Amino acid sequence: MAAEAHGEEAGGLVFHPMDQFIVKPFFGDGAVSWYTITNATVWMALAVLAVFALLVLGTSKRSVIPTRLQSVAELAYGFIYKMVEDICGKEGVKYFPYIMTLFMFIVFANFLGLLPMAFTPTSHIAVTAIMAFAVFFAVTILGFVKNGASFLGLFWVSSAPLALRPILALIEVISYFVRPVSHSIRLAGNMMAGHAVIKVFAGFAAIAAIAPLSVVAITAMYGLEILVSFIQAYVFTILTCVYLKDALHPHH
Amino acid sequence: MATEPIDMEVAGMCVNEFGGAIGMPQLCGEWFGNQIFWLVVALVAIYFILSRIALPRIGSVLAERQGTITNDIAAAEDLKVKATEAEAAYDKALIDARAEAHRIVAAAKADIQADLNKAIAQADAEIAEKAAESEKAISEIRASAMQNVEEVAKDTAQAIVAALGGSADAKTVSAAVEARMKG
Predict the structure, then answer these.
(1) Which of B16, B24, B25 faces A23 most closely, judged by CB atoms?
(2) Cβ–Cβ of A40/B65 closer than 8 Å?
(3) Of A56, A81, A85, A123, which to mutate for an interface test with B (greatest number of B Cβ within 10 Å)?
(4) Structural Rg of chain B based on CA atoms
């Protein structure tokens, strides 16, 4: 799917599954510098607006008997609050706004990305990696600030036989540093793969005989992607909570 | 294939001349800065929206609802206690009324019994009086009957004596009859 695929269009079929991920200036053409308003910027801004609409406008009446939008907002609040409280305990609750921020951003970026012609910021490794590394560094620093050197006890599995502990410690350290990588690639990979697969099915629709099957396949994939959009946001958030729990309670 | 564009990481080398992607656009370093910058802006914006407005508001709404529910439950329990009390009072009133009714019935019964006893006593007295009168009449009748029997006996005895040819004065005969009747 490199340059020549675009030029030759082998066999009459046109596959550009990756074109949807191109970042380009939203207004006019030209180079993309760090401050340019791009399609990524616009869809992130839409996610921010959607969060604002749901959580601020939706709850503006502060009714004791909630409206539909307010119950959705309360549901989201309760969902993440309970998750943080269950996993991290009472001490974790003060980090709830940060975790809620991540969840709301990812869930809205994912869902808005499912709109036709949309751009999905969370399908980009640059975006998810920044969030994952932010979580990684925040959790690591927090762990040392809260527990001092005893945070290293996280790597020393005291319930294992003494002879095994150094090996386990090595494995634990490696897995600890792999965390941000898996954390970010899981989200970006899932989002990218689903969108690319839908585009590939759409490419097959150019053949009339396959078109109905293609439409069915796209519909099925779209349904799956709706699931994936929520589940990946959920997974990212719950892993953040688990990492935070390690920082707050490093002992197994 | 995917790593190729990274090698050619020069401005504008992530897109070919047709506007199509070369390799994975995700790996195009030229766009990283832009995405990271706007991501940070978006996250900070969401964080401020949440921590300044949305979360305190939703938290207070939830707390208020919890408070309302707790109050309502307390009020309901209050009312329930009152209802129980009212029921107890009602039961007590019912028992009292029943006892009063029993008392009245008993009193009425006693009154009636007293009247009845009085009437029976009166009737008994009347009956006794009547019986005494009758007794007297009967004894009179009996006495007169005895007298008649005596006279008949005297007459008969006199007649028998006369028939046997004896002559006896009336005094002797009657004395003999009297003596015989007493004996």
Answers:
(1) B25
(2) no
(3) A56
(4) 68
**∠ CA A185-A243-A240 to the nearest 5 degrees?**
55
Say how many domains are in chain B.
1
Interchain CB contact of B43 with A (< 8 Å):
yes
CB contact under 8 A, B58 and A18: no
Length of chain A: 252
Question: Burial, B101: exposed, middle or buried (Cβ in 10 Å; 0-12, 13-18, 19+)?
Answer: exposed
B96-to-A108, A160, A233, B28, B84 alpha-carbon distances in Å: 72, 78, 71, 95, 18
Nearest to B32 by CA among A19, A38, A18, A117: A38
Identify the pLDDT of residue A11.
Answer: 55
Using a CB-CB cut-off of 8 Å, the residues of chain B touching A98 are 47
Q: Do B34 and A77 touch (CB under 8 A)?
A: no
> Which residue did the predictor score with more confidence, A55 or B24?
A55
Query: Distance between CA atoms of A132 and A130, rounded to whole angstroms?
Result: 5
Among A20-29, A110-119, B107-116, B163-172, the minimum mean pLDDT is found in B163-172
Rounded Cα gap, residues B133 and B83, in angstroms: 74
Domain ranges, residue B168: 4-182
User: Among B28, B30, B31, which would you mutate to test the A interface (most chain A Cβ atoms within 10 Å of its Cβ)?
Assistant: B31
> Searching chain B, which residue's CA lies closest to the CA of residue A29?
B19
Measured N-to-C along each axis, helices B55-163 and B170-182 cross at an angle, to the nearest 10 degrees, of 140
Strand ranges for chain A from DSSP E: none
Q: How many residues in chain B?
A: 183
Q: CA-to-CA distance for A60 and A202, rounded, in angstroms?
A: 42
